[in-house]
Specification:
With about 190 residues, the protein is mainly alpha-helical. The protein has 2 domains: about 5-75, no CATH class; about 90-185, no CATH class. It contains 9 helices and 5 strands, in the order αβββββαααααααα. The chain has helices spanning about 5-10, 55-60, 65-75, 90-110, 120-125, 130-135, 145-160, 160-170, 175-180, and strands spanning about 20, 25, 35, 40-45, 50. The strands form 2 sheets. Strands 3-4-5 form a 3-stranded antiparallel β-sheet. The chain has a two-stranded antiparallel sheet with strand order 1-2. Strand 1 (about 20) and strand 2 (about 25) form a beta hairpin. The mean pLDDT is about 85. The protein binds zinc ion.
Length: about 190
């Protein structure tokens, strides 16, 4: 894993480091679609730029990849940091943590139904077919590519507000009282007298 955060590169180049829905503003297409995958690579969902921190810096400074690498290693004193593969144990832990997250994500969609963005919204944002998206949401990691899995999980982790879900669940019956009110269904309750 390259020990450089993409935000650090943005800072170094004087770019805006604000995030919207977890994404940075892409320096190439200016859309808020620049996602750091946390595995040393970033990808823009709009213009499809993808690469590591060295490639990004090279493009922004119009220098070669090697020059960028040399400069950043000096700049960030990252020395001999290498992109290394995860060990089996690390991969096992990270798949288990993804499955835990997805179980909560399924609860999120079921709980909110139409009250928040539905699955279709995320499916479209990720540019996935319905069938691929449901395989991911259902945690069938044996049925999708590693790339698709990482990209989707990273996006969902950044955009699904699971803290909000927990808070709303904890409101118990009061959450539903508010939602009956907000959806203008108070009159309809008479039916159940
Ligand atoms: Zn872009």
């Amino acid at each position: 894993m390259v020990g450089i955060d993409f935000v650090d590169i943005f800072n170094l180049c004087g770019l805006n480091t604000d995030k919207r829905r977890g994404n940075l503003c892409c320096p190439f297409c200016r859309k808020w679609s620049f996602t750091d995958y946390g595995d040393g690579k970033a990808h823009c969902h709009s213009c499809k730029w993808s690469g590591n921190a060295f490639k990004l810096y090279a493009a922004l400074e119009s220098i070669t990849y090697e020059e960028a690498r040399e400069h950043l290693i000096k700049e960030f004193k990252i020395g001999r940091i290498k992109i290394r593969k995860k060990t089996y144990e690390e991969a096992y832990d990270s798949v288990a943590s993804d499955l835990d997250f997805l179980a909560r994500a399924r609860l999120y969609f079921e709980f909110y139904k139409h009250r928040r963005r539905n699955k279709k919204y995320y499916q479209d944002k990720l540019d996935l077919s319905r069938s691929h998206f449901s395989k991911i949401i259902n945690g069938d990691f044996d049925k999708v590519s590693k790339e698709m899995w990482i990209k989707s999980l990273s996006y969902l982790r950044q955009t699904l507000d699971l803290k909000q879900l927990e808070a709303d669940l904890n409101k118990g019956v009061n959450y539903w009282k508010d939602s009956i009110k907000e959806e203008g269904l108070l009159e309809q309750v008479n039916k159940f007298k």
